[in-house]
Structure formats: C-alpha cells, structure tokens
Design brief:
Helix content is about 30%, strand content about 15%. It is α/β, with parallel strands linked by helices. Strands 1, 2, 3, 4, 5, 6, 7, 8, 9 and 10 form a 10-stranded mixed beta sheet that branches.
Amino acid sequence: MRTFCLLLVGVLLSSCGEGKDTVHPLDDTLRLNHLQCEGTHNSYHVQPNEMTAPSWSYTMAPMAEQLDTQGVRKLEIDVHWDADLRAFQVYHLPRFDQVSTCPTFVDCITGVRDWSRDHPGHHPIFIQIEPKTLPAADTPDRLAALSALDAEILSVFAPEEVITPDEVQGARDTLDQAVTEDGWPTLGQTRGRVLFFLNCSREDCVAYANEGSGLDGRLIFADSEEGDSWSAVRIQNTPNADARAAVEAGYLVRTFADGISDLLADGSNDLEAALASGAHMISTDVPAPRPDMDYFVEIPGGTPSRCNPITAPPGCTSLDIEDPSRLR
C-alpha cells in the first residue's frame, strides 16, 4: 500500500508546483536532511503590551512575511482546543499573552499555503505544532482533538502538498528504519511542500502514534525518543552533543538559537552552537533586526537556508537547497 502511495505522490507532484523553472540541479541527489534552515519560536506571537514580561517582549511578522522576507522555513504554532467551536485557537497563554497574528490554526496555515503555492520552488516548510490546551487526559475527547489537527490540515492543504509519515516510511517496517537506514526523500520529491510535526507531551505523542504502534495513516510526525518505532523528528531544545548525535543518526532535529529573555538581559545566545550542531531547524525569537539589540538570526551563507554542515554531501551549495531565482 505504501509503495502505491509513493507512486501516487510522484504523479500528483507533477501537477503540484514543480515546473521547469523551480527544479534545482541537485534535486535528485540532495535529501531533506541535507539542509539547515532558520525557524521562529512562537511564530504567531504579538507582544501584548509595552510593560509585558521580558519573555513575551517580541512581535513576529505575519507568517507569510516571515517566509517571504526573513528567510524563515520553519514555523511554530501553539494551539488551544476550543470545545465550543470544535476548532483550534492560536495564542501563547490565556488572558495575559493572547494576541496572535492569526487567531486560528486554520488561519495560520492558510497563509502558509497561499505563500507556498505562489512560490513552489521552496524547499519544504516545517511546521511545528504544540498543543497547549486539550480535553482532559485519558478521555476519548483528548485523542479526538489531536486527530482533529489532521482534519484541519486537510481543510487547507491538498493531501499531496503534505509530506507524511507513511510516505517517508515507504515499504519499511518502521519509520525509524526508513530514516536511519534508507534516508529521507529527496528535495526533488519534497520541494514546494510542507511537513508538520508535533511537540507534545510523551503521553500525547504516544496516543497520536496509534498508542505507540506507529504513525500509519497520520499526517503529522511526532516528537520521539530512543527506541520509538516512529522516530523521525527529534526536538532538542539545547544544541548539545545529543542534538548532534540525533542529526548523525538520520533524524530531523529542531533546536533553539536563543531566548528573548537572555538576549534582553545580557545578549547571551546559543546561535553558534546551534549552527555547529547540524540541527536542521534553528529557532529564534529574533528573525529580523530590532532597534534595542545588535543581534538577529540569519543562516550564514544561506539563500536563505544552507547545506547542513554535518550531513550534506560534498559539492552541495546553498543555491542547490533553495535558489531565490527558482522559487516560481
């Protein structure tokens, strides 16, 4: 069945944004884990007021603008299940930090979809979803709410626009085997598409992964631990030896470059360590210059992303990962 799905995805992609002007020279050689890109933390966030806590003292541009002008290719969206609306709202914390550039999950990813369809030559956009509010634990409603994320994604994106666990797993028995032994799909197979992954509690990740049996039929990858059959994406908040080991093993890794509180206090950050770790997605609170500091994040030599310093093969250049002249 997975073999058929892979063939179907290949056929559909021929009519899904991959034209002669968006194909890159090494698209059949470079793989998804051969890149390193910039991401944003709380990509929807708007500073609630001037007297707010330091950790909330940042405002993000609308997500499409981040993609278009700030070089961002990984987004993070916090979601809160609204039982009355039967839909996910987007904000950081109730009452005190509740302002967002897009009020609902569907609103947020619709903006991403529109930008993606208008720029089909982009390398995959990564979208991290963090469920902040869900129905009570150990109830059917909680798993139903997690499953509703799949439905909301498909209300916005066509199935062929989403890189799924089933596609990556292919004919392998487990997703972990697929990424560590066979590798990720090529950029040619994934260009112009999106990949979603969950940053969730251990309990919720296991539940979403069909009670730990795997991500068969799911749209979203889930944060995982050593030994999980569905391991493919790892969230390593600190860019340390564990992050590098996960990169070398074949997993996609997200880490942090900084935190706004530390930057405002003394300017300290982990950007150099994050870049050197080989993490594929490096999240920041400061993707663009701001008047109160000399720091912001760009991927060195990126266009806007670059070849991964740990995993990319010799001969790879940033323009092979994504060339601005081939976006559309």
